[in-house]
Amino acid sequence: MRRVSHFLIWVIFTLSSSFSDSITEREILLKFKDNIIEDPYNTLVSWVSIEDEDLCNSFNGVFCNPEGFVDKIVLWNTSLAGTLTPALSGLTSLRVLTLFGNRFTGNLPLDYLKLQTLWKINVSSNALSGLIPEFIGDLPNLRFLDLSKNGFFGEIPSSLFKFCFKTKFVSLSHNNLSGSIPKSIVNCNDLIGFDFSYNVITGLLPRICDIPVLEFVSVRRNVLSGDVFEEIPKCKGLSHIDIGSNAFDGVVSLEVLGFKNMTYFNVSRNKFIGEIGEIVDCSESLEFLDASSNVLSGNVPNGITGCKSLKLLDLESNRLNGSVPVGIGTMEKLSVIRLGDNFIDGMLPQELGNLEYLQVLNLHNLNLIGEIPEDISNCRLLLELDVSGNALEGEIPKNLLNLTNLEILDLHRNRINGSIPPNLGNLSRIQFLDLSENLLSGPIPFSLGNLNRLTRFNVSYNNLSGVIPKIQASGASSFSNNPFLCGDPLETPCNALRTGSRSRKTKALSTSVIIVIVAAAVILVGICLVLVLNLRARKRRKKRSEEEIVTFDTTTTTMASTESGNGGVTFGKLVLFSKSLPSKYEDWEAGTKALLDKDNIIGIGSVGTVYRAYFEGGVSIAVKKLETLGRIESQEEFEQEIGRLGGLSHPNLASFQGYYFSSTMQLILSEFVPNGSLYGNLHPRIFPRTSSSSSSSHGNTELNWHRRFQIALGTAKALSFLHNDCKPAILHLNVKSTNILLDERYEAKLSDYGLEKFLPVLNSFGLTKFHNAVGYIAPELAQSLRVSDKCDVYSYGVVLLELVTGRKPVESPSANEVLILRDHVRDLLETGSASDCFDRRLRGFEENELIQVMKLGLFCTTENPLKRPSMAEVVQILELIRNGMDS
Ligand SMILES: *[C@@H]1O[C@H](CO)[C@@H](O)[C@H](O)[C@H]1NC(C)=O
Ligand SMILES: *[C@@H]1O[C@H](CO)[C@@H](O)[C@H](O)[C@H]1NC(C)=O
Ligand SMILES: *[C@@H]1O[C@H](CO)[C@@H](O)[C@H](O)[C@H]1NC(C)=O
Ligand SMILES: *[C@@H]1O[C@H](CO)[C@@H](O)[C@H](O)[C@H]1NC(C)=O
Ligand SMILES: *[C@@H]1O[C@H](CO)[C@@H](O)[C@H](O)[C@H]1NC(C)=O
Ligand SMILES: *[C@@H]1O[C@H](CO)[C@@H](O)[C@H](O)[C@H]1NC(C)=O
Ligand SMILES: *[C@@H]1O[C@H](CO)[C@@H](O)[C@H](O)[C@H]1NC(C)=O
Ligand SMILES: *[C@@H]1O[C@H](CO)[C@@H](O)[C@H](O)[C@H]1NC(C)=O
Ligand SMILES: *[C@@H]1O[C@H](CO)[C@@H](O)[C@H](O)[C@H]1NC(C)=O
């Protein structure tokens, strides 16, 4: 019965449609409404069954043709939820179906094949899913198709473009489509544009330039590959091409920029290689040029200055050299310039000041020299000025206060001297202010306290002096390593520094360099100390005399000592291996009080606390105060051990420079390495910052992949040296990222080697208590104390994984969850999704190289020690990986 009645309705409907039967269309629309389960804005209240109202005029979002048939349904941004009723296929004149910005689920019903009049379908931004319906390819009149921002998956059916001779625009972007782009797309003779961006489409780009009228192409963020610049130069009519974030390779052809209508050109984040080439001809319409994050080399093309309409120039993260192009100041429309992370050198051109629309100038990590031009203050609209990581000198321009819109000012890591201009405090919109690692001196202006939008402030590593004003978003680390700063939040109280005349103050400070020797809080007076200086490295006096011993009688000096109780005399012996250290006794002895002071702690290791000691003339050394002597039983043994280590020299080892021994205190002196530990660089503390204006380039961009690889290689060489070139071999047994220090060029300097005798006596209790290297210890060492060079290989392997993933060896993402890095990476690699664990901060790397290093990391952390490679083999493998990249 039911079947029959349905059939009858259908017959009546088809027969009667030519009689303007609007009642039936009303019923169809009410069925559409019936399928809606949520209508939060009551959009469909006007869709009612009262028959005397003309639906063409009363139904919200419904439009009719002159004959009175529904020809458009336009309901957008109305958050309707529900499914699309198949009944809609009864609207025989429907031309436009626009439903973007709703929450429709399910798929487009097959019945819609009957909507042969359909001219435009826009169901963008819904929750539709399933395969892309093939019947759409059979709709003969379709001009515009937009299925973007839904959950469609599977391949794009080839039949979608079967009869698309009239289609003008297709968007399938932001779905989950896989497979390749069907070759049949070239059937679409009238296609002006297509947008397949943000899917997981693979394969090659078909011969799209066979489509004569193509203007707009976006395939951004897919997995397409191949040499596209064989094809693209044939599309002379292109105005917008976005092939960013794919795996395309080959050489970019800038000839395309000369196409008359070209306005937007984005090839960023691919694997394009080779010289960027010159720009001979540039379109009058070109506004956006983004070729960032590829492997392009050669000079920044000077012909770029021919692109008179260019608004955005982004060539960041390539291998470009040469200088900032002459004539850039004539490109009047420029508003964004990003050239950072290249090898560009030369000066910052004065003419940048001519760019009155400039909003972003980002030239970080180049080799720029000279001064920051005063004229930059003419760029009144500037929001971001980042010239960090160069070799700029001179002072901060005094007229930056004219940049009233500035939000980001990043000058860190340069050689800027002079003082901080107080009028920086007038830059009231500033959010990010980093002046660290320069040569700034003088006080910190109190006016900076006015900057109430700051989310990041850093002036560390300068020579600033005086009282620290109260500044938003700052902490002790914002001010650290300015020896003459005092007050909160540093622990140096100001009155201590301010007593005495200026000259005395300087002297007191410069000589307070020291090593001294306060262990507990016991202070005392009148103890004499005899220091024995062994200036072994200085061959100034008698030739080859074994050891010259200079003894100082210091009866007038007061010293603090733990042996205070009995008022006895403490004898200490100081031995220096290095010529470059001060040898004058006063330099070492001087500050009888301040010494190994909490402010100067730079690390706490398994065998002791490490301090930085400063000397006059800018020399620093690291001083490790031993907490335990481990298995060392006598002074002779101590001296023998350290003496042996002092003789080692390798570019990737932090060298030992001497020691101090007394009955109450033992110090090991070693090279001071300025850029901190690998751990500190990989896992920086997170600063709160606003999301709006800041780009990711303000994270720790210092550790790019090239540097990380160098660090891996350097560390491997150091370990290989210890294992193979030292007789007897030296085992490290405490390899971890906190023991890998980074010098000013971010090369690795392994520290803490050869101290295994100093480690607390190894037993399983000792391991857990002292050996704070959780996650790095080889299983056989942890379980049965079986010591071999392969223990180092294991720990080294964990460091490799840390370098690739940016994660700590053991993390606890939530309370009950523990993530062991090695196991995590292994799992991901096995499921073929290795790239999921790459450090997200890495850019512009060779994926294959990361995967190989990751595999090496897993190889090194094999359970069975015999199966791990030796360190010498690791070095060879890394060099192979490296050469694979160069060729
Ligand atoms: C639709 O809503 C979204 C989000 O609420 C908004 O971004 C968009 O501009 C709206 N579209 C139109 C055409 O109003
Ligand atoms: C579909 O609607 C969205 C939202 O307004 C719009 O951006 C898009 O251009 C439309 N697609 C077509 C093909 O008209
Ligand atoms: C996309 O599809 C893949 C499998 O084809 C699936 O694993 C993944 O969850 C999908 N992603 C989304 C966002 O639907
Ligand atoms: C450029 O655009 C204009 C106007 O849209 C058009 O007439 C012309 O044919 C286009 N040029 C090319 C080379 O396609
Ligand atoms: C170019 O595409 C990338 C993604 O591939 C995007 O992040 C970037 O903003 C685009 N550049 C421009 C100028 O739109
Ligand atoms: C720039 O790099 C290219 C190749 O990458 C090289 O041939 C050229 O000598 C370099 N130029 C300068 C000035 O370093
Ligand atoms: C800075 O602005 C002031 C007034 O706003 C103006 O007098 C001065 O000339 C400007 N300085 C520069 C270098 O442009
Ligand atoms: C800053 O450095 C420049 C050269 O780099 C030098 O000429 C100038 O005197 C220095 N200024 C100060 C205040 O030290
Ligand atoms: C800079 O700020 C100070 C006080 O914060 C104010 O007195 C001065 O007028 C400001 N200068 C300019 C040029 O706005």
Task: Tell me what you see in this structure.
- With 887 residues, this protein is of the alpha/beta class.
- The strands form nine sheets. It has an 18-stranded mixed sheet. The chain has an eight-stranded mixed sheet with strand order 37-36-38-42-43-41-40-39, with helices on one face.
- The termini are far apart.
- The radius of gyration is 35 Å and the shape is globular.
- Helix content is 18%, strand content 20%.
- One 2-acetamido-2-deoxy-beta-D-glucopyranose is lined by residues 100, 122, 124, 144, 146, 169, 171.
Coarse morphology:
globular
Give the end-to-end Cα distance, rounded to a whole number of Å. Answer: 76 Å
Helicity, as a percent range: 10-25%
Tell me the major beta sheet: 18 strands, mixed
> Mean pLDDT score, rounded?
82
Q: What percentage of amino acids are in beta strands?
A: 15-25%
Discrete helix count:
16
| CA gyration radius, whole angstroms | 35 Å
Ligand inventory reads: 2-acetamido-2-deoxy-beta-D-glucopyranose
